[in-house]
Amino acid sequence: MKEVEARLPSTFTTQVAREFGVHPRDLYAWRDDGRIIELSRGVFRRAEAAPATFPDLLAVAHRVPRAVVCCVSAAAAHDLTDELVSAVQIAVPNSSAAPRIDFPPVTSFRFDQATFELGLSRLEAAPGEWVRIYSPTRTVVDLMRLRSRLGEPIAYAALNRYLRSRAAKPGLLLEFAAKLGVYGPVRQALDISTAG
């Protein structure tokens, strides 16, 4: 069984373990022995694997592969905010049902299918393991779009931090804002931020 355990990926689901011939009884025995760590229901990480930088994002990505890390969670990952996020914020297409995940806590947003992949990027949540996340540009626009729900201070602070970064693309920011129906507020905030 050690041989099978060694062939498993660093992070895996119960289904993947079954595909490798691991019985659920053995899987939970490994967890109880500390050989694997349960990141979320049905998502495990080998104890000897390199530490994950974003274990919660990794767990959610395995639970909901189609989801995209968004809003304040994406802003925190991109260093656009100092806000502490109490739940992983993910976007799912508006045609999908919101996932139910108890741990880690998750907040789901249903985004329009037509623009769902606009600004889609990837983040290395653990060495060699990637999760879907919105780019910094899309993240800022989403925070502006949802500022009444998530808070104007968070949105404007993220915009200002984004504009100070070397990777800032004000033209792309406005293009995304137009496609996501928030051009006016983003244009106004951009004008105020760059006026000083």
Give a structural overview.
This protein has 196 residues and is an alpha+beta fold. The chain has two domains: 2-46, no CATH class; 64-195, no CATH class. Helices cover 45% and strands 20% of the residues. Strands 1-3-2 form a three-stranded antiparallel β-sheet. Strands 4-5-6 form a three-stranded mixed β-sheet. β7 (120-126) and β8 form a beta hairpin. α5 packs antiparallel against α6 and α8 (152-164) crosses α10 (183-195). The longest helix is centred in the last third of the chain and has 13 residues, at 152-164. The radius of gyration is 19 Å and the shape is elongated. The mean pLDDT is 90.
Short description:
The protein is of the alpha+beta class.
Annotate the secondary structure layout.
Elements: H1 2-7, E1 11-13, H2 14-19, H3 24-33, E2 36-40, E3 43-46, H4 55-63, E4 68-69, H5 71-77, E5 88-93, E6 106-111, E7 120-126, E8 129-134, H6 136-145, H7 147-150, H8 152-164, H9 170-179, H10 183-195
Parallel strand pairs: 5-6
Antiparallel strand pairs: 1-3, 2-3, 4-5, 7-8
Helix pairs in contact: 5-6, 6-8, 6-9, 8-10, 9-10
Protein name: Putative AbiEi antitoxin of type IV toxin-antitoxin system
Domain AbiEi antitoxin N-terminal: 2-46
Organism: Kribbella caucasensis
